[in-house]
Amino acid sequence: MSVTAAQGFTAAGIAAGIKANGNPDLALVVNEGPRLAAAGVFTSNRVKAAPVLWSEQVLRGGTVSAVVLNSGGANACTGPKGFQDTHATAEKTAAVLGGEHNAGEIAVASTGLIGVLLPMDKLLPGIETAAAALAADGGEAAAIAIKTTDTVHKTAAVTTAGFTVGGMAKGAGMLAPGLATMLVVLTTDADVDAPTLDRALRAATRTTFDRVDSDGCMSTNDTVLLLASGASGVEPGYEEFAEAVRAVCDDLGRQLIGDAEGASKDIRIEVVNAATEDEAVDVGRTIARNNLLKCAVHGEDPNWGRVLSAIGTTSATFDPDRLNVAINGVWVCKNGSVGEDRDLVSMKDRDVHITADLAAGDASAVIWTNDLTAEYVHENSAYSS
After folding, report:
1. For 124, which DSSP code?
2. Which residues, listed in sequence order, are joined to residue 167 by a DSSP beta bridge?
């Protein structure tokens, strides 16, 4: 159920001492081939962490033989020294793995506190320890090692038509589209080239990770990688391969929302009958980022007025007198005014479904978010201590 679900991959997760609490904090994923194709999507934040800048360069070649990931430090906003440390991490990994591995084909990802240099005296020896622990069933250990404020590790896999797509993700805060605020490594044993991987990955992230909007905060470290080993010998058609990638991304995205910092509600915002898909996404994202609505949902208050006020701040096509809103299947707002009795709405369960009908076309989109809680404030006020 993780990055080693697909044939041709080994992984490890160990405690290198990067985290003061001694928890696992270093993961290594190795593509054993025969194919070493890869694609990646990264944060659109203009402030990018050193490992993002490094891995963007690596992915231009379409080949990745290994990925080394650390938690316990983002290596973001660390200047030239931070980039040198990322380079040194890739060089060390290549040297330890030996063979035909070279630093230019090793991706690096980091997560944790921004503005702090990594303890390289712990990280580099840790790579040796991780390499020695590489195993075909090491995916779960790797997923555990990349956790920060996550309460659970996140893995998923799909097997179909003779090939497998597996993956792991971390993320519980700073979840907002800029692709996907998290670290994700996806693997497949399908025999697929880099351009096809890139196409499938971008299609998948567009409708999954890019529509997870927990707290409206975009990270500096977003990294989603897709590696292909070709070990199954299966060359799938594009559509069936792309659907397998999308399914794994969708599964991981739901797990991210389910583990969002302090959340007590998972909110599915569905915008229907929009003029265009882009407008549907814009409206859904705006509703998801409305803190008053998120507080109302936490208090189990079906306050549809918050939804309409959010819609009204967008440039989407709509007539205010034709807007409709349903909360958990009850149309509490009809034609821009009072609809069914709001007392009919039950919000006791964790899942809350909000439907916004713009009555302006036939396009739709779904955005996932969560409620705003005192626990979220506490966790983020105490995070760096």
Report:
1. H
2. 156, 186
pLDDT digits (tens, 9 = 90+) for 1-50: 899 999 999 999 999 999 999 999 999 999 999 999 999 999 888 999 99
What pTM was estimated for this model as a whole? 0.90
Is-contact 142 187, C-beta < 8 A?
no
> CB count, 10 Å around CB of 121?
9
Catalytic residue numbers?
181
Q: Which amino acid is at 291?
A: N
Cis peptide before 302 (omega within 30 of 0): no
CA 36 to chain centre: 23
Assess contact for 357 and 323: CB atoms under 8 A: yes
Angle between helices 277-288 and 304-311 (to 10 degrees): 130
Q: Which of 112, 103, 35, 109 is nearest to 71 (CA)?
A: 112
Tokens for 327, please give them.
């909360």
DSSP 60: T
Series of mean pLDDT values for 10-residue runs along the chain (385 residues):
96 97 97 98 92 97 98 96 98 96 97 94 98 98 93 95 97 56 91 98 93 78 95 98 97 86 89 98 95 94 97 98 98 98 96 98 95 79 58
Amino acid at 14: I
Specify whether the CB–CB gap between 358 and 323 falls below 8 A.
yes
Q: Report the first-to-last Cα separation within the chain, whole angstroms.
A: 33
The C-alpha angle 237, 209, 191, rounded to 5 degrees, equals: 25
Closest CA to 20 of 68, 73, 76, 69: 73
Which stretches does DSSP call E strand in 335-376?
Answer: 337-338, 351-357, 363-370
CA 86/CA 78 separation, integer angstroms:
11
CA distance 301 to 385: 34
Exposed (0-12), middle (13-18) or buried (19+): which is 148, by Cβ within 10 Å?
buried
Biggest CA–CA distance in the chain, Å, is 69
